[in-house]
Amino acid sequence: MIKVEFPELHEKQREVASSKARFRVCAAGRRFGKSRLGSALCVAEALDGGRAWWVAPSYPVATVGWRMVKRLSSSIPGIQIRQAEHTIEYPSGGEVRVRSADNPDSLRGEGLDLVVLDECAFMKQETWTEAIRPALSDRQGKALFISTPKGRGWFWSLYQNGINNEPDWQSWQLPTAANPFIDK
Fold first, then answer.
1. Which strands, in side-by-side order, build the sheet including 87-89?
2. CA-to-CA distance for 46 and 90, rounded, in angstroms?
3. What does each C-alpha distance from 183 to 26, 177, 180 come to in angstroms?
4. Which tens digits make up the pLDDT trace of 113-137?
5. Rounded mean pLDDT of the chain?
6. Catalytic pick among 119, 126, 130, 166
7. Contacts of residue 167, Cβ cutoff 8 Å, sequence gap at least 6
8. 91 φ, ψ (degrees, to nearest 5)
9. pLDDT at residue number 21
10. Cα Rg for the chain, rounded, in angstroms?
11. What is the 8-class DSSP label of residue 150?
12. If DSSP codes are grouped into helix, strand and coil, which group holds residue 131?
């Protein structure tokens, strides 16, 4: 069994990470630690043999997730980093792939165990409804939606699912001030 030193998560990150909800929606401040949380969950999923994707609205935003996943994975023996494809394969058979949502059609095809949709309020809704959601069906995969809020669009609607106690959904609204690693 491979032991990995994950970054320390603060109390509210741990609350989101430990939720049993299949679909978790985290509307949080810009320095709350959403990316740290999402990257740790992706690597943990891959270490268990799962297929995880980190999806961001554009390639420049996706590189933030790529750097964090790579840094977390760098000390794991036997990993294979495919830089050009933004993919890391783990000895367990799992993988983390970092993708851009600028063309939702390019996200079709693979079955997923976990997806982190980073800054998803800034993505097209069909990224979720037509590409990612079907990819979670056969494996009963989970999704973590992390974003700073942007009005009452589709991310707000997803957030309402958790607030309204829809089955399999849980939502949080968390300010940057909830991150004790940021100087007040």
1. 80-82, 87-89, 95-100, 51-56, 114-118, 142-147, 23-28, 169-174
2. 7
3. 22, 9, 7
4. 999 999 999 999 999 999 999 999 9
5. 91
6. 119
7. none
8. -60, -25
9. 97
10. 15
11. B
12. helix
**What integer pLDDT is reported at residue 16 of this predicted model?**
87
Q: 77-116: per-residue pLDDT in tens?
A: 999 999 999 999 999 999 999 999 998 888 887 899 999 9
Name residues whose C-beta falls within 8 Å of residue 8's C-beta, 6 or more positions apart in sequence. Answer: none
Q: Which two tokens stand for residue 116?
A: 């982190």
Count of beta carbons in the 10 Å neighbourhood of residue 41: 24
Give me the residue label for tokens 């997730």: 65
Contacts of 112 (CB under 8 A, 6+ apart): 51, 52, 53, 132, 135, 136, 139, 141
The pLDDT of residue 109: 78
Is 0.85 topped by the overall pTM? yes
Told to judge if 119 belongs to the known catalytic residues of this protein, a careful annotator would answer: yes
